């Protein structure tokens, strides 16, 4: 097995008296798709917020590509290759679909004010590359025909997929997906599963997926970690997780047996 791209070692975060994530040890290797599941309030989004630098762990360590991320700001971590989507859609609603992607890619490229003003050859090359990349992603996600429409005018499922496209436009190594199937209908969910698998291979991504839909999680994850009250209670393959007594008791319920 290759060295982990992402490693959490006893990562803990406390908010006042509440330990939202407690001594979480978890790793994701190159090109691996790992699920992070658990009941509401278990600490999944908080774990994402620690990985992306939004929160600093109270104790423990998080490493990305072997480097301790402590104290590194979210925008710099994004530059190192960590991208995420959010539980609640956060598109620029008054921008077109294509502009949403362009903005994300430009921020990632670190385009400065003067280079944008000057618009030299390097700027033009980077711009053309951004455009090609954005259009390829829109085609993969079947959104190319909507490229000039306002993001807000897209149906809900398309907006969710656009969020993933926007994250991918930053050319990440690690993609964190926070409930990407929320609110999707069954055929959109099937499509989403196919797309996540496809882009993982196409761009050689590692993916950490938070998702409540068990069909999606069990269908695409290679490995799954389960949180309850901030504590990892189980980790294993989808098959192992489905029949893990602690997981059934805490989360999946009798229906899963
Ligand atoms: N900034 C904060 N300040 C105080 N408490 C917080 C903060 N962020 C999260 N929490 C608390 O940490 C716990 C874990 O929340 P978190 O949102 O990570 O859960 P989750 O597993 O993502 O839940 P869900 O599935 O409902 O999204 C909750 O009790 C939450 O209220």
From TrEMBL:
Superkingdom, natural source: Bacteria
Name a single GO biological process. L-isoleucine import across plasma membrane
A GO cellular component annotation here is: plasma membrane
Q: What InterPro entries does the record tag this protein with? A: AAA+_ATPase, ABC_AA/LPS_Transport, ABC_transporter-like_ATP-bd, BCA_ABC_TP_C, P-loop_NTPase
Is the keyword Protein biosynthesis in the record?
A: no
* Residue ranges that the Swiss-Prot or TrEMBL entry lists as coiled coil: none
**Protein name per Swiss-Prot or TrEMBL:** ABC transporter ATP-binding protein
Organism for this UniProt entry: Luteolibacter yonseiensis
């Amino acid at each position: 097995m290759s060295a982990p791209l992402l490693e959490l070692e006893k990562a803990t975060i406390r908010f006042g008296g509440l330990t939202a994530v407690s001594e979480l040890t978890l790793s994701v290797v190159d090109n691996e798709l790992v699920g992070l599941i658990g009941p509401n309030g278990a600490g999944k989004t908080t774990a994402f917020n620690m990985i992306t630098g939004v929160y600093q762990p109270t104790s423990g360590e998080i490493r990305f590509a072997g480097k301790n991320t402590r104290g590194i700001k979210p925008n710099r971590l994004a530059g190192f290759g960590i991208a995420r989507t959010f539980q609640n859609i956060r598109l620029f609603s008054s921008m077109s679909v294509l502009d949403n992607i362009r903005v994300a890619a430009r921020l990632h490229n670190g385009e400065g004010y003067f280079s944008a003003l000057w618009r030299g050859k390097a700027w033009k090359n980077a711009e053309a590359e951004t455009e090609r990349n954005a259009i390829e992603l829109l085609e993969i996600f079947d959104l190319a025909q909507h490229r000039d429409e306002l993001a807000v005018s897209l149906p809900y499922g398309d907006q969710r997929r656009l969020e993933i496209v926007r994250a991918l436009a930053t050319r990440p190594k690690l993609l964190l997906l926070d409930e990407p199937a929320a609110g999707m209908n069954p055929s959109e969910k099937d499509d989403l599963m196919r797309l996540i698998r496809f882009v993982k291979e196409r761009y050689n991504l590692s993916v950490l997926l938070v998702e409540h839909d068990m069909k999606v999680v069990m269908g695409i994850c290679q490995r799954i970690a389960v949180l309850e009250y901030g504590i990892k209670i189980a980790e294993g393959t989808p098959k192992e997780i489905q029949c893990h007594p602690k997981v059934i008791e805490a989360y999946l319920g009798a229906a899963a047996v």
